Amino acid sequence: MAIYPIVLTQQTFTHQDNLTYPFEERGLQFGDGIYEVIRIYNGSYYLLNEHVDRLFRSLDAVKIKLPATKEEITDLLLHLLEKNEMTSDGKVYLQVTRGSAPRDHVFPADVPANLYAYVQDLPRHLENLQKGVSTITEPDVRWENCYIKSLNLLPNVLAKQEAKEQGCYEAILHRDDLVTECSSSNIYIVKNGVIYTHPATNRILHGCVRMRVEKFATDLSISFNESGFTKDDLFDADEVFLSSSTSEVMPVIRINQKQIQDGTPGPITRKLQQEYERDANITENNITHSL
Ligand code: PDD
Questions:
Q1: Residues near ligand 1 with C-beta < 6 Å?
Q2: pLDDT under 70 in the chain at which residues?
Q3: Dihedral over Cα of 281, 285, 288, 289: its sign
Q4: What DSSP assignment string belongs to 190-203?
């Protein structure tokens, strides 16, 4: 893994070795902040505007004021790639917290928000994308505002760890019987040629790739139904897949050790993967070419 030493802090660029994180940082002490993960292919961002839009929606929702416009943040993020001479597949992690101040639940007065962003290499999960992944189901015990990309990820972390300990890739979350999303991705089933997913309410993150999946479905004349589905529907589905900036369109072939249909990715999932590769200008390491 390459180390990218230039980090965006506040609104300037700093060498990684010069970074100092104060202990009394509200992100650290309260999880009082929000974040984004943005995909990079061949040194260029994918869905950058969508991520910047969601960043500002999250900031508004938690009342963090960032003294910069969307255009300025976009420019800074573009410069971050240039400064690091990024040319491969990767991701940027960006975090904004309410700032550094003596610990007190109440917002500190006149304290600037802290903004950090850094680049990492991230090769595509080609084998998983081709063969599909195993998952588990877990109760969704998160708060009601999952549309905010908040730093408070403990329920997500615990669910993903449970998946890992059971040899699985992801945990599918459900509130009572209704499936919401996964610990770090959105989830869909296909039944009789229709894609079903949870509606874009406050109970799920409105994924940037989810928005694209909806568009791909429309382009392919496949119905995209946002009425949601139940845990039982998962096991009775023709196809199951998940989506995120790091997982792309990922086939799910097993849930709680039960195989979905014949245990191989279904035709609609494959079509969406092809659309994704086309949309993201992925020309090398193409899934369908290497199948
Ligand atoms: N996760 N739902 C949750 C809970 C997520 O954390 C994510 C993203 C998504 C998909 O969002 P998008 O399509 O915009 O990546 C859905 C990122 C990748 C992460 O936390 O690492």
A1: 37, 156, 181, 184-186, 205, 207-210, 243-246
A2: 1-3, 288-291
A3: positive
A4: EETTEEEE--SSTT
Q: Which of 160, 172, 157, 159 is nearest to 254 (CA)?
A: 172
Instruction: With H, G, I as helix, E, B as strand and everything else as coil, classify residue 278.
Output: helix
CA distances from 175 to 45, 171, 178, 235 (A): 34, 13, 5, 17
Please report how many Cα atoms fall inside a 13 Å half-sphere around the Cα of residue 190, on the Cβ side.
Answer: 24
**What distance in angstroms lies between residue 228's CA and the mean position of ligand 1's atoms?**
18
Determine the distance separating the centroid of ligand 1 and the alpha carbon of 244, expressed in angstroms: 5
| Beta-bridge partners for 39 | 91
pLDDT score at 5: 72
Q: What atom in ligand 1 is closest to the CA of residue 211?
A: 13
Question: Which has the closest alpha carbon to 277: 223, 225, 216?
Answer: 216
pTM above 0.90, yes or no: yes
Q: Which residue's CA is the nearest one to ligand 1's atom 11?
A: 207
Name the residue with the closest Cα to ligand 1, atom 20: 184
Q: Which residues are catalytic?
A: 149
Residue with the nearest Cα to atom 9 of ligand 1?
A: 185
- Rounded distance from Cα 207 to ligand 1 centre (Å): 6
Separation CA 182–CA 101 (nearest Å) = 34
Backbone dihedral angles phi then psi of residue 26, each to the nearest 5 degrees? -70, -25
Query: In this predicted structure, what is the pLDDT of residue 29?
Result: 97
Cα of 246 vs centre of ligand 1, distance in Å, is 8
Give me the domains of the chain, ranges plus CATH numbers: 3-121 (3.30.470.10), 126-280 (3.20.10.10)
CB-CB neighbours of 229 under 10 Å: 22
